[in-house]
Amino acid sequence: MGSDDSSGSSVCLPKYLEHLSGDGKAIGVLTSGGDAQGMNAAVRAVVRTGIYVGAKVYFVYEGYQGLMEGGSNIVEAKWENVSSILQIGGTIIGSARCNAFRSREGRLKAAYNLVRLGITNLCVIGGDGSLTGANIFRKEWNGLLEELAQNGQIEKDEVHKHSYLNVVGMVGSIDNDFCGTDMTIGTDSALHRIIEVVDAIMTTAQSHQRTFVLEVMGRHCGYLALVSALACGADWVFLPESPPEDGWEESMCLKLSENRAHKKRLNIIIVAEGAIDSQNQPISSEKIKELVVNQLGFDTRVTILGHVQRGGTPSAFDRILASRMGVEAVIALLEGDPETPACVVSLRGNQAVRLPLVECVQMTQAVQKAMDERNFHEAVRLRGRSFEGNLKTYKRLAIKQHDDKITKSNCNVAIINVGAPAAGMNAAVRSAVRVGIADGHKMFAIYDGFDGFAKGQIKEFSWEDVGGWTGQGGSILGTKRTLPGKHLEKIAEQIRSHSINALLIVGGFEAYLGLLELAAAREKHEAFCIPMVMVPATVSNNVPGSDFSIGADTALNTITDTCDRIKQSASGTKRRVFIIETMGGYCGYLANMSGLAAGADAAYIFEEPFDIRDLQSNVGHLREKMKTTIQRGLILRNESCSVNYTTDFICQLYSEEGKGVFDCRKNVLGHMQQGGAPSPFDRNFGTKISARAMEWITEKLKGSQGTGKKFVDDDSICVLGISKRDLLFQPVEQLKKEADFEHRIPKKQWWLKLRPLMKILAKYKTSYDVSDSGKLEPLHPNQ
């Protein structure tokens, strides 16, 4: 959006949600096809954002079936109707597969039902079939209205008044089978269900030395199978897009028997339900079981997960994703005009984007075509670079080459954990050890942080030493907050005595400070002139140079689960407000994001200063809320958001001001946020980012051994972070200007722009900059 000033140049003006008017507009929201966890969060966001901007929003019950049948299936939604649905799986407005909508006659009935209520904006949450149907409906809209007028079912002027239909899609599918989006709504929750089952099966399999064949959903897409195999360190995985090579039966049995020979007590094989061989013949879980039993005589069991994967409560990731998509969908509908093509609201990295619906569907269908033509390399490429990267990483970590096939680098690489424990650290260590061994290095693990380093608590690790580490929480190597400054002489001596050629640090802000100290000590100590890289791992998510840290997703899920339980308690007692204190140091990421995921009324964070007037305003808001049918409140407070407005103070203030209207309770979550088994996201992220860090070390060391080369440049001591959707190596010196050292947070934090979302969805008037919205992004394969 631009305006011309007197000089004739164009000036970009910011665009705000509150300036987009929904007056006189009506939006219909429906869920169609297979259900997925998180659909309710999307419905809630559409309803509340629509009402916020002044539009009427209608529930369309039972998908396209309800659209055709009309009547009580299309009902105006009120703000309270979508309360307490964030934590519920499935979809409260129902979903149905509807063949009748495929006919023009069915779409004619649907058009009549919408026009009757003045609905010309449709938000469809479903898979590619549902979205394709919506686009056909949009294209035919004008013709359908003219036919209705000719039949005398509607007035002629209504054809002109409602001349076009705006359609925006959100992809709700647990399979993550839609091209153009990084993650579809429901995928992360389905992975949670799978990993919960795998973790449970592993304990029983280990007790009896069993082999388990696990069948997961994915008729045409192997994403769930691939990522769960990566997240649990499965021995073998079968996917529709990447069939095993001919003779796979022998290779798999050899791998399983080798693992047993190395004292591994269990084997896990994961099979996508649509798994095929290179001749497009199905590979069933029963066939695999028979093969293992007949060839190896192993005690083997099959577990078919089925609809368990669709059920249960949505993960924090899915709730946040769906809430963001829902808001973006309403903005897209409000900005639509007759020329606007149907779009899909999608996620790229941490950016919400709009993509052309037709092109996304065509590319999704192209994957299936490539598979049918047995062009599997092309099928994997079309799935996108994330899928391709997952497959490459899985192959590197699952299958160990024989020692005589690995070219030795004669380099020693050490791994250390620094700072507080974070779930996913062990997955990162396992990944680094195995990639390092595959690259020909000797891998050393340092116990108990820099303290252990100074004392020489260093041990060489083999491929088998890190087996089964991905699912374990905390830090098996042990970790401490101690910085290296006090022990520089001793650490330098250990580097020399163990001939360490490179160092990989997994940790949080302390790890970053530690790297700065080691970089500064290079002048005095030649031993530190080696490549060093840090992989961010902290629940606080406060490392400069990275949008995400290993461990933050697990902590977010822990907080969200606790908030769900507390909300349930508050709903039972009625008129009760809970104040929950989260970790994070001065970084408000956990408080803010869990507030969005749990549907909190407010979240107090250090990054957004607040005073007594804000507290009074929040109390007033809650007093008003207690007059409605939603008689409970949830407030989140970051542990260091204010020196004086402590959790106790806020609780007492709320109790006093809310006297006679509501009472107040507080809950400090504490160290439970650091514990627990890592979430699928943290296992996968830790595995991939650590593998990339080892590749960087290998590139740096290539050709340096025996030359006496000293690494003194800034770019030889880096933080590996994720920015939007790219993994970037940034020198620690360069990141100094981006860090607030006093409060141990980055100066700029991407998630702060999501802060108004929580306020809008909690019924606060606020300002939300949507300048980034509005552009239809091009779709490129292999994104």
Automatic annotation (TrEMBL):
<keyword id="KW-0324">Glycolysis</keyword>
<comment type="similarity">
    <text>Belongs to the phosphofructokinase type A (PFKA) family. ATP-dependent PFK group I subfamily. Eukaryotic two domain clade 'E' sub-subfamily.</text>
</comment>
<dbReference type="GO" id="GO:0048029">
    <property type="term" value="F:monosaccharide binding"/>
</dbReference>
<dbReference type="GO" id="GO:0016208">
    <property type="term" value="F:AMP binding"/>
</dbReference>
<comment type="pathway">
    <text>Carbohydrate degradation; glycolysis; D-glyceraldehyde 3-phosphate and glycerone phosphate from D-glucose: step 3/4.</text>
</comment>
<dbReference type="GO" id="GO:0046872">
    <property type="term" value="F:metal ion binding"/>
</dbReference>
<feature type="active site" description="Proton acceptor">
    <location>
        <position position="175"/>
    </location>
</feature>
<feature type="domain" description="Phosphofructokinase">
    <location>
        <begin position="27"/>
        <end position="332"/>
    </location>
</feature>
<protein>
    <recommendedName>
        <fullName>ATP-dependent 6-phosphofructokinase</fullName>
        <ecNumber>2.7.1.11</ecNumber>
    </recommendedName>
</protein>
<dbReference type="GO" id="GO:0003872">
    <property type="term" value="F:6-phosphofructokinase activity"/>
</dbReference>
<comment type="subunit">
    <text>Homo- and heterotetramers. Phosphofructokinase (PFK) enzyme functions as a tetramer composed of different combinations of 3 types of subunits, called PFKM (M), PFKL (L) and PFKP (P). The composition of the PFK tetramer differs according to the tissue type it is present in. The kinetic and regulatory properties of the tetrameric enzyme are dependent on the subunit composition, hence can vary across tissues. Interacts with ATG4B; promoting phosphorylation of ATG4B.</text>
</comment>
<dbReference type="Pfam" id="PF00365">
    <property type="entry name" value="PFK"/>
</dbReference>
<keyword id="KW-0460">Magnesium</keyword>
<feature type="binding site">
    <location>
        <begin position="97"/>
        <end position="98"/>
    </location>
    <ligand>
        <name>ATP</name>
    </ligand>
</feature>
<dbReference type="GO" id="GO:0070095">
    <property type="term" value="F:fructose-6-phosphate binding"/>
</dbReference>
<feature type="binding site">
    <location>
        <begin position="127"/>
        <end position="130"/>
    </location>
    <ligand>
        <name>ATP</name>
    </ligand>
</feature>
<dbReference type="GO" id="GO:0006002">
    <property type="term" value="P:fructose 6-phosphate metabolic process"/>
</dbReference>
<dbReference type="InterPro" id="IPR009161">
    <property type="entry name" value="6-Pfructokinase_euk"/>
</dbReference>
<feature type="domain" description="Phosphofructokinase">
    <location>
        <begin position="412"/>
        <end position="697"/>
    </location>
</feature>
<feature type="binding site">
    <location>
        <position position="665"/>
    </location>
    <ligand>
        <name>beta-D-fructose 2,6-bisphosphate</name>
    </ligand>
</feature>
<feature type="binding site">
    <location>
        <position position="576"/>
    </location>
    <ligand>
        <name>beta-D-fructose 2,6-bisphosphate</name>
    </ligand>
</feature>
<keyword id="KW-0418">Kinase</keyword>
<keyword id="KW-0021">Allosteric enzyme</keyword>
<dbReference type="InterPro" id="IPR041914">
    <property type="entry name" value="PFK_vert-type"/>
</dbReference>
<keyword id="KW-0597">Phosphoprotein</keyword>
<dbReference type="InterPro" id="IPR022953">
    <property type="entry name" value="ATP_PFK"/>
</dbReference>
<feature type="binding site" description="in other chain">
    <location>
        <begin position="671"/>
        <end position="674"/>
    </location>
    <ligand>
        <name>beta-D-fructose 2,6-bisphosphate</name>
    </ligand>
</feature>
<comment type="similarity">
    <text>Belongs to the phosphofructokinase type A (PFKA) family. ATP-dependent PFK group I subfamily. Eukaryotic two domain clade "E" sub-subfamily.</text>
</comment>
<dbReference type="InterPro" id="IPR035966">
    <property type="entry name" value="PKF_sf"/>
</dbReference>
<dbReference type="GO" id="GO:0016020">
    <property type="term" value="C:membrane"/>
</dbReference>
<feature type="binding site" description="in other chain">
    <location>
        <begin position="538"/>
        <end position="542"/>
    </location>
    <ligand>
        <name>beta-D-fructose 2,6-bisphosphate</name>
    </ligand>
</feature>
<feature type="binding site" description="in other chain">
    <location>
        <begin position="173"/>
        <end position="175"/>
    </location>
    <ligand>
        <name>substrate</name>
    </ligand>
</feature>
<keyword id="KW-0007">Acetylation</keyword>
<feature type="binding site">
    <location>
        <position position="210"/>
    </location>
    <ligand>
        <name>substrate</name>
    </ligand>
</feature>
<feature type="region of interest" description="N-terminal catalytic PFK domain 1">
    <location>
        <begin position="1"/>
        <end position="399"/>
    </location>
</feature>
<dbReference type="GO" id="GO:0061621">
    <property type="term" value="P:canonical glycolysis"/>
</dbReference>
<feature type="binding site" description="in other chain">
    <location>
        <begin position="583"/>
        <end position="585"/>
    </location>
    <ligand>
        <name>beta-D-fructose 2,6-bisphosphate</name>
    </ligand>
</feature>
<keyword id="KW-0479">Metal-binding</keyword>
<feature type="binding site" description="in other chain">
    <location>
        <position position="273"/>
    </location>
    <ligand>
        <name>substrate</name>
    </ligand>
</feature>
<feature type="binding site" description="in other chain">
    <location>
        <position position="639"/>
    </location>
    <ligand>
        <name>beta-D-fructose 2,6-bisphosphate</name>
    </ligand>
</feature>
<keyword id="KW-0808">Transferase</keyword>
<dbReference type="GO" id="GO:0042802">
    <property type="term" value="F:identical protein binding"/>
</dbReference>
